[in-house]
Amino acid sequence: MFVGTLGYSRRMHIASQRQRQADWFEGMEGAFLRFGGVPAEVLIDNAKALVEHHDAVTREVRFNARLHAFARYWASRVQAAGLCSLSSTYEREGRTRRGYVKKNAIAGRRFESWAAFEAHLDRWTREVADQREHGTTGVAPVERFADEARTLRPLAGRAPFGQLRDLVRKVQADCAIDPDTNSYSVPWRLIGESVQVVVLAGRVIIRHAGQVVADHALCRGRRQRIVD
Fold it and tell me: How many angstroms separate the CA atoms of 100 and 131, rounded?
């Protein structure tokens, strides 16, 4: 199960999940949609699909490159939970949240189908988890959320990250990069430099040092040259 919880209100989003990277992204985006916005920071578990290395002594963390792309796309920072720090607040709360869902939403129940199971989780979250008096805050999550909602960044109608391609290309001598056989122009001063290329929603957006240096309509043909 994916259980995403807002830090202030403690509102939860629950989703069925495998351990693939795409499932983690889908779970987080599902939480963004449920809450109607994106938090400034996301604290994640040490899942192998997301964290390539986490040193328990130095606390050094190396995230998967695709997770970095996900964070850039949603303009949110990512942090990893303490490795094996069973006494940490995060670990305790994480275990408490998962235990609460298992014992109160799932244990002792049977479902005719997976769809029925997911519908039950959605209803239980809205009618029970959101409305209860939270053990730590003493206030129903849905009440505290009224204040927290104002701090979330707007979704701005963005498509899911799964529809995005985040590439790195070297600018060639003809002032262009060439994803998918087509050639897109880039300012001449960047010849020989590596640039980030994002393909999404019919656009090819090229960034260098965090700044957009070119923005083209996606060409549906092959071996075409698109010049601004």
Answer: 14
pTM above 0.85, yes or no: no
Which backbone phi and psi does 194 adopt, to 5 degrees? -90, 135
Rounded to whole angstroms, the Cα distance separating 192 from 139 reads 57
Residue range 148-206, pLDDT digits in tens: 999 999 988 887 887 777 889 999 999 999 988 899 999 999 999 999 998 876 789 99
Q: Are residues 31 and 107 in the same domain?
A: yes
Nearest-CA neighbor of 204 among 187, 188, 182, 189? 182
CA distance linking residue 30 with residue 9, whole number of Å: 17
Sign of the torsion formed by the C-alpha atoms of 73, 74, 76 and 81: negative
Does 157 map to a domain? Answer: no
Number of folded domains that form the chain:
2
**In 3D, which of 101, 56, 98 has the Cα closest to residue 81?**
56
